[in-house]
Amino acid sequence: MSALRLLQSLFTSSPRRAPADCFAHVRTGTAILVDVREPGECRRGVAAQAVLLPLSDLAGRRKRWKPFLAAHGDRELVFYCGAGVRSGMAARTLAAEGFRTVNAGSFQAWADAGWPVVAPTDADVHGKS
Question: Domain residues of the chain, as ranges?
Fold first, then answer.
């Protein structure tokens, strides 16, 4: 990520919403749920329907992010992570680039709100694409 993009993201806002407020949008497909945790962090599970795209790739070469954004950039992007900090960074970064984004906090908040949690795949745990 360029220094200019990083600076822009610091001054861009993105809404923060509780997971329960995002459920209907994700279920109907008007929004896409994105887990920005790094490979190996999802051993306790993954929110059902979540796409796993690590924040490090968004901040780096965007090997996985570029095709994802090209295919789904017209939808609202709802982010979560381990504690809600990195999801906020992803939401602000992409909001600064013109995407519609929401920081929906932590994985545990999704689980506590009753969203289904599924076991991670081997690729999720080991970062294989």
Answer: 3-120
